[in-house]
Amino acid sequence: MKSKTGVPLIEFENVTVLRGKNQKILDSISLKIYEGENAAILGPNGSGKSSLIKVITREYYPLARAGSSFKIWGQDGWNVFDLRSLLGIVSNDLQYACTRDITGMEMVLSGFFSSIGLFRERLTDAMKRRAGQVIEFLEIGHLQDRPVNHMSSGEARRFLIGRALVHDPKALILDEPSNSLDLHAFYKFRDILRKIAKSGISIILVTHNFSDIIPEIKRVILMKDGKIYKDGLKKAVLTPGNMARLFNLRKVKFNAYHT
After folding, report:
1. What is the pLDDT of residue 257?
2. What CATH number has the domain bearing residue 141?
């Protein structure tokens, strides 16, 4: 992609991550995503997509070497409470951790404390109002008092998104968001994702399924074997040839209804 003006929201520069002593799960990744961009990171399982997210959440640490850096909004060090106003993270691991006997409203409110549920946290009226606004925006008010462990995967996913949105972040990062969703939940999820994108929050979608890519996403980054394989405008990158090579197939019948 051509360079843009301003400070990147996320910036990887020659980032390498090792598993064990020798296995590279990310191999010299250089990538910039700017505020206001909607981008998809697409690749097969094991391509390194989720490892990118784990670098952002500080679960993985890049190999320390000259010329290598990872920054958010131009900074390489962040307090987690400050970071929440920039990036909201939605992942399957987090949904699994949050799926317990707490209500949907409690899940959303827990986003203010980066906790799993509410314990002795002090809620303010402003927090309750904001959580209510987010729940209304996501069209899940009728479910807010239901225990999360009694919800469908699609219902719980929307409350998890609400948990990420209470701080009004500049970007929402979603890791494999359509996993475990049935067809009805999948289309409802796409509608909500489009609504979020139209509200002005950047969407960074990490997925192995090109059907997840909504029309508002204009940039697609393909990952394979821990490396950036292609990066460009959606119409140029999402071609049958590129998809066949990405997923090691002889031929792909590709219906780009999302373009």
Report:
1. 43
2. 3.40.50.300
